[in-house]
Every structure is written in structure tokens, then in C-alpha cells.
Amino acid sequence: MNQESKETFNPELDLVLERIVEVPVELVWNAWTIPEQLKQWFTPVPWKTIDCRIDLKPGGEFYTMMESPEGNLFPNNGCFLEIDYLKKLVFTDSLLPGYRPSGNSFMTAFLTLEAIGTATKYKAVAKHKDPETRKQHEDMGFLEGWGTALDQLVSFTKTLPKTK
Prior knowledge:
By secondary structure, this protein is of the alpha+beta class. It contains five helices and nine strands; from the N terminus they run H-E-H-H-E-E-E-E-E-E-E-E-H-H.
């Protein structure tokens, strides 16, 4: 973990997934910030992400609509808090676009990326309001689900046309 994360990571409230993936940081960034790309990998199969809106600016919308294998729909709406091109995305469901309080709060996510040659050091931290919410997220399969989604992201990027 970098210095910032060591200072703010609380194991009683937070979950973390950290890996090095053999994908250039630009492709990981694009997969997270281009809606049509995000829809291809974001939800572990057999779930689907059927809609996505991204307004990539602080206070901008981060919306996804997930569909279960049974056809149930799960909208997730929030906003971006921090954007550092190719390095960091922070978003939350505690706030709606324009920083309007949502009334719902499950987590704030911190995604940090670091280029290591042609690979990327990928770290996702989910911060929760209380230990019960952290436990709920862990029981929902945070590590497996976010890990599977990351595997799907890597596989997706390998299908993209090569650019020079």
C-alpha cells in the first residue's frame, strides 16, 4: 500500500483488492472511464452491466445498471469525488451527481493505478460507514466479485485493437 492508503485504510471498515495486471495503465483507465468499455467487464458473468453513464469530473455522474441472471435490475447511482488521470478514481454512492446527498450509503471506492513498465499495479479500496456494512460487502463476495471483474477487464482489454 502507498503511504496515503496506510494512513487512511481501516481494516475494520475497509476492503482492498490489490494486484499487478499485465495491461498498460492507459487500457485499464479507458476500461473504467468509457461507458461502452465498462459495460463489457464490470459485472461478473452471468450478471451483466446493461447501462452506464460516466461524467468524468468531480461531482459528475457514475451510474451503472446491473442485471441479474434472473432479469432483476439493480441501478447504482453516485458521483465522482476525485479524478487524477491514469492514476486515481474516487467515487461514492453517498452522493448523487452535483454532490447531492443520496440518502443511501454503501461505500466509497478508491481505485489507484500505477504504471509498472507495460503492466499496472491495480488497487481498489472499498470504504464503508460501519463494520456491519463492511461485513455485508465481504459476505456478498467483494474479493471474488471484484477479482473476477478485474480478470474480465484484463480479458476484455486483450480483445481491443492494438494501437501504436
